[in-house]
Design brief:
64% of the residues lie in helices and 0% in strands. With 114 residues, it is mainly alpha-helical. The chain has a domain of 78 residues.
């Protein structure tokens, strides 16, 4: 049985990695993707920090302050937003990887970030 934890689930094939190593890859779309990834990662981190703080608050809540600082439905919506953002980012990465494999090697058709 294969160990799925050791499998390599890369989005960019070896040919794209080689082209990048050799300087034959248009890096602009990849840099734009990294910028979007940073925004999503920061947003997801913020949502998780809010969730963690809310859980801690519930542990120390008293009779005077029994309610969490954020309603459960609001937290649910924030977590759903974070999940959707992460899934959207993965989809965008898959698209960029596919285009990079197809178009981005300099000397072939020029890569465009549609």
């Amino acid at each position: 049985m294969a160990n799925l934890l050791k499998d390599d689930f890369t989005y960019f094939p070896d040919s794209v990695m080689q082209a990048a190593h050799e300087g034959r890859l248009d890096a602009a779309p990849l840099v734009r993707m990294l910028e979007r990834a940073a925004v999503v990662a920061n947003g997801v981190a913020a949502v998780l920090e809010i969730e963690a703080a809310s859980l801690v608050y519930l542990d120390i809540a008293s009779e005077e302050n029994p309610e969490p600082p954020i309603a459960g439905s609001t937290m649910y919506n924030l977590l759903a937003l974070a999940r959707h953002s992460a899934h959207t980012l993965v989809s965008e990465i898959e698209t960029v990887a596919s285009r990079a494999e197809r178009d981005s090697v300099i000397g072939n058709e020029e890569f465009t970030d549609d």
